[in-house]
Write a structure and sequence with these properties.
alpha/beta, 18 helices, Tyrosyl-Transfer RNA Synthetase, 15 strands, 6-stranded mixed beta sheet, Structural Genomics Hypothetical 15.5 Kd Protein In mrcA-pckA Intergenic Region, Chain A, Rossmann fold
C-alpha cells in the first residue's frame, strides 16, 4: 500500500476504495492540512438506489469519518438527460414530478449513513437542476462548449463503445459529459468543492470536470475512482437473478436484503466487510480467516452489520432472528415473506408464483421439476400438489436459501 500522510487517503486505501487518483500527492497534502469538501453524483432514475451504489455512499461516509465534508449531488437536471455510460440505449425520460419524488425517496439511505447539518464537516445534499435548469443554452455553448472538443469526446468509453456497437446515441446524451463537468466547476465555485469521487466508469467525466475548472477558473481540482466492483463469480454488484438489491426498505424487505449479504461468496467476505461495514480491520482479518464452515459466521456478521447501517438496528435483529428460527431451529421466522392461501386452496405452482419465488408458472414448474420446491422441508415433485385452504401455517422453500410462509386465510 502507498504511504499516505492524510487520514482520508490512508482510510480509503486500507479499505480498498482507491482505483485511480488524478494527483495523489496533491490531494494527500491538501487533505492533511484542511477540510476537503468532496462530492459524488447520483441520478434519480428510480425511487431507490441499489447495492451497486453502496460503495459510493460508503465512500462519502469515509470522507466524513476522516474529518472532511461530503456533498451528495442529486442529478435532478442530469436525470433529464441520462448518463450513456455502460448503456446500449437511451434512458426513459421521466417527468419532473417523478424525479422530485425519486430524490425525496433516495434521501432515506443517505440520512442513515451520513450526518447532515450546517457544520464544517456535516453532509449536505444539492440538486443540479438548481443551476443547470437556469443555464441558457447559448451561454452554455459560449462559456463551456469551447473547452470541449468533439475529437476527444468521441474517445470516451461512454461514447466510443456505443458507436462501436452501432447503437444510436442521441445528441441529448452526448451532452451529458459536458453537464457533469460543469457540475464540478459550479460546486468548486459555490461550495469550495475540491474533490469528485465515483466509480471507475466515471474517470473520463471526472477528468473533464477537473480540466474545465482549471481552464475556466484556474482552480486545482482532484478526482478519485473506486475499482469496478464485481462479486467473486464475476457478477455485477447489486444485481441478482431475482432482480436489483434495492437499498430502500419499501423497495426490498429487510429479510431479502439481509439474505443477499449472508449468501455472498466466501471469497467476497473480507472485501465486503472492509467496504460496507465500520468494523476494525483487525476484526475483519480474523473473520475472513475463519477456517472451514466458520466463514458462515463471518457472513452473518457481514449481513448484520450492513443491514444495521442501511436499515437500522431493529431490522438487523429481526432478520438475524428470522434466519436463526428458519435455518437453525427449523421453524418459521417472523420476517419471512408470506402468502395467504385462499379457502379453496392453491397448487404448489400457484403458491410459488404468489409468494414471489417464481416470476411465472413456467418458472415454477421448472423449480418443481428440478426438486427445488419444498413444503416444511419435504420436496414436492408433483406440480399438481395442492395446499388446502385450512393449511394453518406452512414453510415453503425454493432451493436452500429462499423461504417463506403459507398461511390460511
Amino acid at each position: 500500500m502507498t504511504q499516505y500522510r492524510s487520514t482520508l487517503l490512508r482510510l480509503l486505501d486500507e479499505r480498498g476504495y482507491i482505483h485511480q487518483l488524478t494527483d495523489a500527492a496533491g490531494l494527500d497534502a491538501l487533505a492533511a492540512k484542511q477540510v476537503v469538501p468532496g462530492y459524488i453524483g447520483f441520478d434519480a432514475t428510480a425511487p431507490s438506489l441499489h447495492v451497486g451504489s453502496l460503495v459510493q455512499i460508503m465512500m462519502l461516509r469515509r470522507l466524513q469519518q476522516a474529518g472532511h465534508k461530503p456533498i451528495v449531488l442529486m442529478g435532478g437536471g442530469t436525470t433529464r438527460i441520462g448518463d450513456p455510460t455502460g448503456r446500449d440505449e437511451s434512458r426513459k425520460m421521466l417527468s419532473d414530478e417523478t424525479i422530485a419524488a425519486n430524490i425525496a425517496s433516495i434521501r432515506t439511505i443517505f440520512s442513515r449513513l451520513l450526518t447532515f447539518g450546517d457544520g464544517p464537516t456535516d453532509a449536505v445534499m444539492v440538486d443540479n437542476q438548481d443551476w443547470l435548469g437556469q443555464l441558457g443554452y447559448i451561454r452554455l455553448l459560449q462559456e463551456v462548449g469551447t473547452h470541449f472538443t468533439v475529437n476527444r469526446m468521441l474517445t470516451f468509453d461512454s461514447v466510443r463503445l456505443r458507436l462501436e456497437r452501432e447503437q444510436p446515441m442521441t445528441f441529448l446524451e452526448f451532452n451529458y459529459m459536458i453537464l457533469q463537468g460543469y457540475d464540478f466547476r459550479h460546486l468548486a465555485q459555490t461550495a469550495a468543492v475540491r474533490l469528485q469521487m465515483g466509480g471507475s466508469d466515471q474517470w473520463g467525466n471526472i477528468v473533464n470536470g477537473i480540466e474545465l475548472g482549471r481552464r475556466m477558473d484556474g482552480t486545482e481540482l482532484f478526482g478519485l475512482t473506486t475499482p469496478l466492483l464485481t462479486t467473486a463469480d464475476g457478477a455485477k454488484m447489486g444485481k441478482t437473478a431475482a432482480g436489483a438489491v434495492w437499498l430502500n426498505e419499501d423497495a426490498l424487505p429487510a429479510w431479502d436484503f439481509w439474505q443477499y449479504w449472508r449468501n455472498c461468496d466466501d471469497r467476497d467476505v473480507g472485501k465486503f466487510l472492509r467496504l460496507f461495514t465500520d468494523l476494525p480491520l483487525d476484526e475483519i482479518r480474523q473473520l475472513e480467516s475463519l477456517p472451514g464452515s466458520g466463514i458462515n459466521a463471518a457472513k452473518v456478521v457481514l449481513a448484520n452489520e450492513v443491514t444495521r447501517l442501511c436499515r437500522g438496528e431493529e431490522a438487523a435483529k429481526t432478520a438475524a432472528a428470522t434466519a436463526e428460527a428458519t435455518f437453525a431451529g427449523g421453524g418459521i421466522g417472523a420476517d419471512l415473506p408470506e402468502f395467504t392461501v385462499p379457502p379453496e386452496g392453491v397448487t404448489i405452482i400457484e403458491a410459488l408464483v404468489g409468494i414471489g419465488f417464481a416470476a411465472s408458472r413456467g418458472e415454477a414448474r421448472r423449480l418443481v421439476a428440478g426438486g427445488g420446491a419444498r413444503i416444511d422441508g419435504v420436496a414436492i415433485a408433483d406440480e399438481s400438489h395442492r395446499i388446502p385452504g385450512d393449511c394453518g401455517e406452512l414453510r415453503i422453500s425454493s432451493g436452500k436459501k429462499k423461504h417463506g410462509v403459507l398461511r390460511s386465510a
